[in-house]
Each structure stands twice: as structure tokens, then as C-alpha cells.
Design a protein that fits this description.
Elements lengths: L13 E5 L6 E6 L9 E4 L5 H16 L2 E6 L10 E4 L2 E7 L6 E6 L3 E7 L6 H11 L8 H8 L21
Parallel strand pairs: 3-8, 4-6
Antiparallel strand pairs: 1-2, 2-3, 4-7, 5-6, 7-8
Helix pairs in contact: 2-3
Length: 171
């Protein structure tokens, strides 16, 4: 239940969604068991990480605490900065061969969360279905399979590149 007290050092069990207009599109589940493969889902508006990461990091910091690293597949993005500063904190950005449909987020020194990354050009209902499946308790499927089953392009890099400055507005 969101907001319920958690033992020292652990996050409260809960499910969170940020989907208000202008906000980052994020679904996140925090549980003590962490039984699913994925901890959440993110639907960026574009392939511009300098434009997208600050909102994601702010939303995650609000729910998880300070974020120290984000790992992404460099091939899926227009550019991959090595660090971004959000709310006065430096967050390191790493290029990982995790697949362009997954982001790895580190809280503190070692607590890693895995997020499904929905391609920016995905239709709203398809994106919402994929995001809901990613946070379903005990979900056994990898990010790529969730995207395929939802009917999205199978990965970020397979979709057409977003025009510079183009952002999804129909969230």
C-alpha cells in the first residue's frame, strides 16, 4: 500500500504512476520481494536524453530517493551524455548493452531497478498496456517480449527517429 511504513532501509510497498500532462510517463512498483523481472516502465516523449532524463530522474528520486546512475543502450538515443545534473545532483549515465527496451537505474550504491522503455512513437493505448504489464506482480517476461506482445515496434531503435525537438503531446 503506497505510503505504508517500511522497515529501515527498504522502500514502502506500492505502485506509482506519473501520467499527468507535462509529467514524465512512468509506472513504478516497489515491493520487498521484487519478484518480477521489471520494477517499472518509462515512456519517453522523444529520443533526446538531455530532454528526457531530468524528468525521469526527478520522478524516480521522488519515489526511490537519490538516483546515482542510469544505464541505457546508446544506440537507441540521439545522444548519450555521460552525466546530467538534476536538482543540483550529478547522475552518471552509462552505456550498457542491456537492450534498447530496458533502462537500469541505480539508487545509492547498489540498489538497481530495471525499467521497460516504451518507444516514444508508440500509440497511447499500446504504451499503457505495455507499462501495465511491466509492473504486474510476478511478471516473468522480459521487456522486449512485453513490447512485442503489446504490439509496439520491438525496440526503440527500430522506430523512425524523432525529429529534433519533436515531443509526444498526446499522453
Amino acid at each position: 500500500m503506497p505510503g505504508s511504513p517500511a522497515p529501515a532501509g527498504l522502500l514502502a510497498d506500492g505502485a506509482y504512476e506519473s501520467a499527468r500532462p507535462g509529467a514524465v510517463a512512468l509506472r513504478l512498483t516497489t515491493t520487498h520481494e521484487r519478484s518480477g523481472i521489471l520494477d517499472g516502465a518509462w515512456w519517453p516523449r522523444s529520443r533526446s536524453l538531455p530532454g528526457e532524463l531530468p524528468g525521469l530522474i526527478s520522478a524516480l528520486t521522488e519515489r526511490l530517493g537519490p538516483i546515482t546512475r542510469v544505464g541505457l543502450d546508446a544506440a537507441a538515443w540521439d545522444e548519450l551524455p555521460t552525466r546530467v545534473t538534476v536538482d543540483g545532483r550529478v547522475v552518471h549515465v552509462d552505456a550498457f548493452p542491456v537492450g534498447d527496451d530496458t533502462a537500469l537505474v541505480t539508487r545509492g550504491d547498489q540498489d538497481i531497478f530495471s525499467l521497460l522503455v516504451v518507444p516514444p512513437d508508440t500509440p497511447r493505448e499500446t504504451a499503457r498496456a505495455a507499462m501495465a504489464e511491466a509492473v504486474r506482480a510476478g511478471n516473468p517476461r522480459q521487456a522486449r517480449q512485453i513490447l512485442i506482445d503489446a504490439g509496439t515496434d520491438t525496440a526503440l531503435r527500430t522506430g523512425p527517429p524523432a525529429a529534433e525537438g519533436t515531443r509526444r503531446q498526446d499522453r
